Amino acid sequence: MTLIVDGTNKPLGRLASEVAQLLKKGYPVVIVNAEKIVVSGTMEGVLPKFKRRYDLRTLSNPIKQTPRWPRTPEGIVRKTIAGMIHRDDRTKLLKRLKVFRGEPPVEGKRIDLKLRTPSRFVYIQDIARALGGVE
Length: 135
Hints:
It is globular and about 45 Å long. By secondary structure, the chain is of the alpha/beta class. Helices cover 36% and strands 15% of the residues. The protein has a single domain, classed as CATH 3.90.1180.10. The protein contains five helices and six strands. Helix 1 crosses helix 3 (73-83). The protein has helices at 12-24, 43-54, 73-83, 90-94, 124-131; strands at 3-6, 29-32, 38-40, 97-99, 109-111, 121-123.
């Protein structure tokens, strides 16, 4: 049974930890509306933390050996959830995860995670647009 989680106005970290727990229990999970997931804080406080990762370069071969970070809303959400899973289980569990922008026609049981929306927040779509991942 596939579980469908709507990401609208849900905080990224809390959503990621809840989804990681569902994946560990064996459920396949689909996240919809990934662009509407929020990160707590202001754009001036959040964006430099994301940009700092993208500016990292190695001295030996910066094109091949530089860490690559996702710039799309789906990639940012997927990478956050992957960080909540132990590396020995990561590949197996992430095969059960699908992340979509918008509302694709997916069948399954919709579940509502009761997560409180922070008072100051930034949408993932705005962060991705500032990083060059969304046109």
